[in-house]
Amino acid sequence: MEISPESRSSQDIYKILIGTVLPRPIAWVSTVDLSGNLNLAPFSFFTVASVNPPILCFSPLLKENSIEKDTLANINQTGEFVVNIVSYGLAQAMNRTSGPYPSKVNEFDVAGVTPRQSAFVKPPCVADSLVNFECKLQQIIPLGSEPMAGNLILGKVCNIHLHPDIVRNGEVESESLDAIGRLGGNMYSTIRDCFEMERPAI
Ligand SMILES: Cc1cc2nc3c(=O)[nH]c(=O)nc-3n(C[C@H](O)[C@H](O)[C@H](O)COP(=O)(O)O)c2cc1C
């Protein structure tokens, strides 16, 4: 079966993309607006873009009316955000923050999670997350102006918080982080069924 994206609706293409590009890690992104209102929302179009310098990227899509989501609007205004990692135990709380709440609504309260002051940026960390990346905006690349167009946000990591529970002998222990991933539809995965493979030594 071959599919020309132009022949299908954005909704169809969305379903194909999220059902095949998986599992996707989840950036649980905290931001503030210029008045200091807190915002928290999950984004699975998320990955590492660079190590030196350390850059994370994620992509909020435009809404049905082509309007920016609060996270994008806030980062446009302030140039700062925190990426919090979602462990299995935080799945329900994370999901609650994905509703289309008005911009003044504080999703920390909606989710019942605790904000903790960041060291270098205004948006707070999610204290309940075992990993927090404080980021300063590097660049936003708008990828279109129609509904569901992505906006690739690149942020330079300026501070990393690792909870002692996930560090053993100075190394991060991924199993203890127990991060979840997003699949197609409303499905999620864990990292509890892993396998190891050595890379070729040439
Ligand atoms: C696990 C998960 C991953 C999501 N990933 C994305 C994403 O990558 N891009 C996006 O635009 N929306 C994504 N969403 C939807 C947003 O979280 C949702 O639109 C949210 O209301 C945006 O909040 P904001 O307006 O406060 O920024 C995701 C939702 C969930 C539950």
Give descriptors for this structure.
single chain; alpha+beta; Pnp Oxidase, Chain A; 7-stranded antiparallel sheet; 5 helices; binds flavin mononucleotide
Task: Lay out the secondary structure.
Elements: H1 10-20, E1 24-25, E2 27-32, E3 38-43, E4 46-50, E5 55-58, H2 70-78, E6 80-85, H3 91-96, H4 107-111, E7 115-116, E8 125-126, E9 131-142, E10 151-162, E11 167-168, E12 171-172, H5 174-177, E13 181-182, E14 188-189
Antiparallel strand pairs: 1-13, 2-3, 2-6, 4-5, 5-10, 6-9, 7-8, 9-10, 11-12, 13-14
The chain binds flavin mononucleotide.
Flavin mononucleotide (FMN) is lined by residues 26, 39, 41-45, 59-61, 69-71, 95, 98-100, 182.
Q: If you consult CATH, what is the topology?
A: Pnp Oxidase, Chain A
Strand content: 25-35%
Compressed to H and E, one letter per element, the order equals HEEEEEHEHHEEEEEEHEE
Uncertain parts: none
Mean pLDDT: 97
- Strand segment tally: 14
Strand order of the largest sheet: 3-2-6-9-10-5-4
Bin the helical content: 10-25%
Level-2 CATH architecture = Roll
Instruction: Tell me the number of helical segments per DSSP (H or I, 4 or more residues long).
Output: 5
Let me know the largest β-sheet: 7 strands, antiparallel
Number of domains: 1
Structural class: alpha+beta
CATH class: Mainly Beta
Gap between N and C termini, in Å? Answer: 38 Å
Radius of gyration: 17 Å
**Distinct small molecules bound, one entry per kind:** flavin mononucleotide
Q: Give the CATH H-level superfamily.
A: Electron Transport, Fmn-binding Protein, Chain A
